Amino acid sequence: MSGTVKSYAAVDLGASSGRVMVGRVGPDSLELTEAHRFVNRPVRLPEGLCWDILSLYGGVLDGLKAAGQVDSVGIDSWAVDYGLLDGDGRLLGNPVHYRDSRTEGVAEKVWATVPAPELYAATGLQYAPFNTLYQLVADRLTGAERLLLIPDLLTYWLTGEQGTELTNASTTQLIDPRTRGWSYDIAQRLGIDLELFAPLRQPGDPAGLLRPEVLEETGLAGPVPVTAVGSHDTASAVAAVPASGERFAYICTGTWSLAGLELDAPVLTEESRAANFTNELGLDGTVRYLRNIMGLWLLQECVRAWGDPDLGELLREAAEAPALRSVVDASDPVFLPPGRMPERIADACRASGQPVPVSRGEITRCILDSLALAHRRAVEEAQRLADHPVDVVHVVGGGTRNALLCQLTADACGLPVVAGPTEAAALGNVLVQARAHGLVGDLAGGRELLTRTQPLTRYEPRGDPGRWSEAQARLVRI
Asked: Which of 64, 223, 230, 464 could lock onto 235 through a cystine, CB 3.0 to 4.6 A?
């Protein structure tokens, strides 16, 4: 295969947009270009907040047409959400959005049957009100014969073949992270029929060929295989962390910040549960030990409320605003729903006795300081709980474009931050496809290729770390 260069289409779906990227991979080269980008806009229907899954599928088809001839296709997306099919494989309704309110109060009902510590010890998953398990308990499954997580649903429409990719399945709270298989005991006790799920697939497994109708619509010449990748976008993003060795932390930034470590085994202690860390499955037997932080959702919602002002100008104003004047808990569920974000941030500052940010620059600085502080807490606590020290923090994803956030994260953590790549999920998606087709070696080999071929920026910590400790003290709940 010396000198061989192949092209792979990475379908990468985020909570606010989707994109089809084309990765061209050779022994010493890795180039990524954008073929098509499209909006992912949820729709509020009488029955609740839903994903416009048909529009997303249309965007995927348009993207594959724009990509041109490729050697394989892989799909990754956000986690936990799913579509339900009837016995003939027809979609029963629009997949419900994880921010929908239908799971309110469901966790308490689940814990009455399986207490929270027992549930964590069995599945290793942090509490989040939208976990698939809680959605299933809240859902009416009448007529459903099959459940497909979002990337698996789109793969099914492309190929006609059904499967459940493991890294995404591990976010359902129905997988045992020790065995990397279904937790049948938990499912049985909660009345969840695991026969709803298609057979498990591993990243790199074949997932079928594009159907003739898809080839005709996209103009591609068959056969074109679809390859299972780390279909949870965080699994793909972590696969694209350009780290060497084991002493690193990562923060996958975007609508969410996922901050944590890559481990060989899950951490299932009660202390870990209390700290709300999750154990999700990654490539090559790894565990993604991380905490979900609200992320740039806070800023995205403020920008939307302000009528989409220029982001560069906002960040310049934030850089000039007083540092650490006011901070909020970026993991507080109060910030989960959409709407009124500037007011909710002001309310949180007022409730904690801190100065209330007024201008857009002050609010933006409050958000970025708060995210950096949340990154610091997660990285410090993950090291302690896993007994796994680190020397560097890798920041990947959309937040790498935000130089102020990267520098603040280095300052808060007291560690160097290496920022990049920005399109980490798409690159991880491409690397798994390239591995499956013999162009890339193991996980370390893929990361070494990334380090040589992708632009990276290093931020050294600066300032007084005691100021971050003082800011953290303001958030200690009474």
From this structure: 230
Q: Which two tokens stand for residue 238?
A: 């972590």
pLDDT bucket at 2, cuts 50 / 70 / 90: low
The tokens 């800011």 sit on which residue? 471
**pLDDT surpasses 80 at 1:** no
Beta bridge partners of 248: 392
pLDDT at 216 over 90: yes
Q: Which amino acid is at 279?
A: N
pTM: 0.93
- Angle, CA 18 vertex, CA 162 and CA 277 arms, to 5°: 75
**Catalytic residue list contains 233:** yes
For 202-224, b/e burial (b = at least 16 CB within 10 A) is bbbeebbbbeeebbeebebeeeb
Q: Which tokens belong to 241?
A: 């962390």
CA distance 76 to 15: 12
Residues 9-18: pLDDT tens digits? 999 999 889 9
Nearest to 144 by CA among 155, 136, 152, 133: 136
Could you give phi then psi for residue 287, rounded to 5 degrees?
Answer: -120, 130
52 burial via Cβ count (<10 Å: 0-12, 13-18, 19+): middle
Average pLDDT over residues 133-158: 95
Among the listed residues 12, 152, 176, 233, the single catalytic one is: 233
327-363: per-residue pLDDT in tens? 999 989 899 888 999 999 999 999 999 999 999 999 9
CA distance 461 to 62: 43
